[in-house]
Amino acid sequence: MTGSYNPKDIETKWQEEWEKDGINDVVEGSSKPHKYVLEMFPYPSGDIHMGHVRNYTIGDVISRYSKMKGFNVLHPMGWDAFGLPAENAAIKHKSHPAKWTYGNIATQKASFKRMGFSYDWNRTVVACDPEYYRWGQWIFLQFWKRGLVERRNSPVNWCPDCGTVLANEQVIEGRCWRCHSEVQKRDLTQWYFKITDYAQELLDDLNQLDGWPERVKQQQANWIGRSEGAQVDFILCDKDGNIPADPTPDDIITVFTTRADTLYGCSFFVLAPEYARVAEFVAGTPYEEEVMALVEASKKITAVQRAMGDHEKHGAFTGRYVVNPINGEKVPVWVADDVVADYGTGAVMAVPCGDQRDFEFARKYDLPIIPIILEPSDPLYSRLCEEQGRVVTSVDWEQAYAAEGILVQSGEFTGMVGGKHSPGEDAVVAKLEAMGRGKRKVEFRLRDWLISRQRYWGNPIPAIHCEHCGVVPVPEEDLPVRLPEDIDLAAGETLATHKGFIECTCPVCGAPARHETDTMDTFTCASWSVLRSTDPHNRELPFDPAKAATWMPVDQYIGGIEHALLHLLYSLFFTKVLRDIGLVDFNEPFTNLLCQGMVLDGKGEVMSKSKGNVIAPEDMIAQYGADAVRAYILFMAPPDKELLWNEAGLAGMFRFLKRVWRQVQLLSHDPDVRQDNVTEDDAKGKAAAKTLNRELHRVIGKVTDDIERFNFNTALAAIMELANATDEYLKYVPAQTRANCEPLQELDAFAAKTLVLLLAPFAPHWAEELWHEVLGEQGSVHLQDWPTWDPAQAVAETVTYPVQINGKVRARVELSKEAGKDELQAAALEAAASYLDGKTPKKVVVVTGRLVSIVI
RNA sequence: GGGGGUGUGGCGAAACGGCAAACGCAGGGGACUUAAAAUCCUCCACCCAAAAGGUUUGAGGGUUCGAAUCCCUCCACCCCUACCA
């Protein structure tokens, strides 16, 4: 006996039952095939919002469906729990970051449970738990042993208000993502992971990721930014402009270029303001003042201005010259603030005719623009390709010619095709190599990963500074380096001022020493948690390689596109290093990746706390239940599409669940549910029963197929169609009739069961309640087999074929589904007779199962 | 500047070269009700009073018996990334 659908009564009840029965716990050693379904872990910044609801509902449907399909599913949850927001909140509330973090984790966990997500909570990974972060430190030490950890001085992003360096992803349009202060460039000694050692492999292996969205792979490839070109050595003239007779390595300045073919067009040479030898070059010369002023001024160009690209570019002549190796010509050396120090060599050969930036610079400072590459239609072309030597050193162009073209005024290379990867470029590089003045070189845009942070709430870098021994690793047996709990952040205390934390002895010589006080970027924690979930309680190793091998790689990874790039790139990097260390035996951690679209507010804005437009599911759950919220957010749009949250349709999904609930009751002959609106009609009833049977088979097939392809929206639409067919059936076949007819009883049972099973992954509580209380079944609905269907019963016996004449539907013919091409053509021509007017059609296209197209 | 994507009713959307708008939301009309809610029935791309008919997938062209879908040109919007030589 049951009443009408009331989610309040059933949802928490089943959540408790499931937990008690452990139906979501992973069974190790099962003979079933394994499946690892994982969603990106949340950051515990507060309670969950609609973005979380979408992400984790997708994962939950895949997980529940996979279990019903007979897989042994690992579906864990965890928290990416270190990071600045916890610390800032602690300062604000004069509290400890752990309090805030664990408080939010508890809140989110309760919300996840309230949503009915099927996690195995015994496997929860929390990044700020010493039992987890000790292994992050252990991995750091293995990286160090392999030479993948480096401490060096470089220009870095520094947020003055937050008092720490920032990762690139934390700099948004030149501003700190939290406090919006302008980020400064500073030269600091920081810790790096040498991800660039893996740049080529990371790029190459993108090809193996068949189960990843193309856009993510493309984004990664762009980020890695492989660029093929050459290094070219220019010889530096002395202060008086004399070419050294016997140049030493100090007399050589190397540049990187992808356009060696344009070397003959080099009319000046540019150094970045940060170039190490700039001061030396101009010291004591008349140029010193202006150049050094430019160097100083360039430091003040903010990343904001750079990002906007709207700052004026400046240059200053150094008074020095270098020699172009291809033609022995002396060209002036400038310093300019549009050259970046940390790409290539920090020095650039300028070819204004072929590069727009060089072109603009040459115009501004009145430097020669020598045309050395043209398209044959250019008026200069016929003249210059005849000439030997250089005759034209200025042009009246409006912009540079950056495309492929024919080289002119280029000595022996004149007449060759120039451009990126062109024969001309090849020839010039070959010549330079023969001269010993250049070589092939590949550059990457990818930088080493700056992992140190000057903040408390992170994983401490396990290193010790000793006066005698330098920087030495903390011995593995001393791990974890624990974060001290007695710290008053609100009073300005930091790890660097915490005596108890700093003071230690050198593990090598035993002398008094200092602990490193930087912590690791939170992304380091997130880069291997996927592995820890396969063996979360291991106290000997980060994870048992055998257990990792059982579950990994993740069969389906699900997460937002917005932070996909860096987290994924870092995870791939970690996996490759751990493979080289011998802890894992695979290249890629995530076989298939589903990137869900962002959930935006009704106006299309990203939801954020600072904007105050965060939408939480709490009230909706209270009003309509978690099941309706789950089903509705999937019904709104395909998962990879951006979604503007709009609550209007949620009531409709609730109505749908209510309606099907009642249908299941009626189909089960629940004595307490009265059937109204019945019109006994034998003919319509028979047809409706036939249609219902067909729809059951068709919809099981459709929903199965749709879930496999993540088309949850159309899967739900198909179930709604099934519900419509059920309504039609119930309308014309009264309970009495159904009760007294065995085939109809079977149909009733089949329909009731199918509706419940198909909706079980979407509306788990709803399904469980009906399964037990209305269908009277034993065992959880979520442990049942997914329904099967008979494709032969899924199609109608007759097909209504549209008959097109010159592309327009002019008639219809109804034929058996078995009708052959000839029969179909004959029927179509007969139906179209009045349009044919006795003539023979030009062409007839017959597509069985589809249509007939006649051309007259 | 580079890369990726999107464009279909009032709205969310569907259609893996084959009857455009499935499914739902909102809305109109009706039944039930003293009334409302709930529920049920019904209409719902556009033009035409209706039917018949015609038109329609950002714009234009092409391929095809047949195009929202494939190709070319253009427009608009969104996201990512960027002084990368």
Task: Give a structural overview.
By secondary structure, this protein is α+β, with helices and mostly antiparallel strands. It is 37% helix and 18% strand. It is built from 28 helices and 35 strands. It is globular. The protein starts with 6 loop residues before the first helix and ends with a strand. The protein binds one RNA strand of 85 nucleotides through α7, β11, β15, α11 and β31.
Give a concise summary.
37% of the residues lie in helices and 18% in strands. The protein is built from 28 helices and 35 strands. The strands form 10 sheets. Strands 10, 11, 12, 13, 14, 15 and 19 form a 7-stranded mixed sheet that branches. The chain has a 4-stranded parallel sheet with strand order 2-1-28-29, covered by helices on one side.
Helical residue percent? 25-40%
**Low-confidence runs of at least 5 consecutive residues:** none
Query: How many alpha or pi helices?
Result: 28
Principal-axes shape call: globular
The number of distinct β-strands equals: 35
* Intertermini distance: 65 Å
Major sheet description: 7 strands, mixed
Radius of gyration, in angstroms, nearest whole number:
35 Å
Assembly type: single chain
> What is the mean pLDDT?
91
Strand content: 15-25%
Q: Supply the helix-strand structural class.
A: alpha+beta
